[in-house]
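Minutes, project check-in
Item: structure for the 450-residue chain
Input as provided by the requester:
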Amino acid sequence: MKTITDFQHKKILVLGLAKSGVSAALLLHKLGAFVTVNDRKPLSENPEAQHLLEQGIKVICGSHPIELLDEGFEVIVKNPGIPYHNPLIAGAITNGLPVITEVELAYLISEAPFIGITGTNGKTTTTTLIHEMFKADEKKAVLAGNIGEVASDVVQTAGAEDHVVIELSSFQLLGIDKFRPHIAIITNLYDAHLDYHGTKEEYAKAKLNITKNQTEEDFLIVNADQDHLMKMTETTKAVIVPFSTKETKETGACVQNGDIVFRGEKIMSLAEVALPGAHNLENILAAVCAVKLAGITNQAIKEVLTAFSGVKHRTQFVREYNGRKFYNDSKATNTLATKSALAAFNGPTILLAGGLDRGNGFDDLIPYMKNVKALVTFGETAEKLAETAGRAGVGIVVKTENMQQAVQSAYDSSSEGDIILLSPACASWDQYKTFEQRGDIFIEAVHTLK
C-alpha cells in the first residue's frame, strides 16, 4: 500500500459502521488521523464499536448528534447507506465539509490499478466473470467493493502487479473525489434507487461519477444498446469501448455469425457459453472488453465462459429434481431484474415472487409472463402480484406465507420439464434481512423437498 499523509493529524469523522466503516476507521487510525466513529446502534449492542474503542479510537454511539458538526472535523467518511438528507450530512455539505466513502480511501492508498464496474443490473455477474478470467489466466486480481472484501482492506496487501476488480454502487460513487479506475464499466442504466437519489437524473449522475476523473489513458466500457447511456458518456475523456448484443462494434465486443468477437477477433462460439439469458450476454461482453484490455488470453476467457453457470442468488442453477430445474434469482429486487430472468427461459415456468411493498405496480411484468404457468406469491406484495398474474392470464396462482411454503407449493404446481424460478421483483426486508438470506432459505427448501 502507498504511504500517504493526506489524513495525518487531521480530525476525521467516520459516520456509520458495518464492515466498510470499521475498515475505514482502522485504516485512518493507521494513517495517523484523529478518528471519531459515530454509529446509531448503542455501544452495548455494537461489538464493532467496542472493538474500535479497544484500539484507542473515539466512539460515539446511539444516535447521530448534530452537535458533532461543531467538533472541527476536516473530512467525513460516510457509510454508503446513509442518505445525504441525513441532518448531519446535509449540515456538513452546507458548511463545505468534504464527505467521502470508503472507496475513495482505498483508491488513495492502492498501488494496484482499478477495474470498476457499475450499472443498474449485472454488476455482480460482470465483476465475478472478470475476476474468474484473471484467475484462469493465472494473473493477479483481488475482488473488492459490494462483492468480495472491503476495498480498503484488500488494497493494503495488493501490489502494482495486481488488479482491484471492484463492484461499485451509486451510493459509493457519490462519495468520491480523486477515485480513477483505469478500466470502468457501466453495464446499463435504468431508473432505480429513486428513494435515495430523489430523481433519475441524480441517480444517473452518481453512476457517471465512475468516469469523472478518467483521462485519455483510461477506458470506459459502455452498453451501446442503450442510446441514452451512450449520449450521457459522450463527455468522458476516456477511450469508449462499446459492447452490443444487437450490432457489430469494431471498437468493442459484439456477436457476429454466432461468435463472441472483440475488435474483430473471434474469442469463442456463443453456443459454448454456459450462462443463460440475453441479459447475461451483455454481462459477458462487458467482461470480455475489460479482460482483453487487461491482456487476458482467449483461452482463459473460454475456460470460464464454458463452465460458469451463474453467481449465487443471480439466476443461479440450484438443482434438477424429478425433471424440474430450480433457479435462485433472489437478487431480483425490482421488476426489471425479474423481466430479464423470465426472458432467459423459454419453457413452462413456475415463478416465485413477492416481498417488500414499495408502492409500485407489477404490470410491466405481464408481457414477460407468457411462459408462466403458475405464480406462487409471498410477502407484502402477494395480493398485488396475484392480481397482475390474473391480468396476464396465468392459470394457477398460489399465495403462501413464507419461502419454505412457496417452494413446496411451486413443486406441487409443477410438472416434469418445468422451470421453477425464484425471482421476487421485490426487496426482501418485509420478511428477511437480506436477499441473500431469502435465497439461502430457497436453496435449503429446494434441497429438502418432499
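Outcome recorded: Residues 217 and 238 are 7 Å apart (CA to CA).
No further action items on this chain.
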